[in-house]
Design goal:
The protein is α+β, with helices and mostly antiparallel strands and 96 residues long. It has one domain (11-91): Outer Surface Protein A, domain 3 (Alpha-Beta Complex). The chain has helices at residues 43-50, 58-68, 75-91; strands at residues 20-24, 27-32, 37-41. The chain has a 3-stranded antiparallel sheet. The longest helix is centred in the last third of the chain and has 17 residues, at 75-91. The relative contact order is 0.26.
Length: 96
Amino acid sequence: MTRPEASLDIATPKARADVVFRSLSKEWVLYDPRSRLLHVLNPTAAIVWTCCDGSVTVEEIAAELSETIAEAPPLDQIVTDVRDALGRFSKEGLLE
């Protein structure tokens, strides 16, 4: 069964301008001032977040990850992982 995040169709995801992205100790976090929630990101999700400027496609984000990650999985798996991360960002209201 496909998770809803995996089927998300966001052509060029854009992060909300008011969401704060910071390094906190050894982790990357997002702070949403609307909900007052702090989201801890794994390194892959942090890279995905940095690409959410409204001009980069899911496939381009996946290609960026493929070049960045040592021993990267197949590109189709990376695309699925990117869609999952974007789905979580969307569900939390972090994207425009």
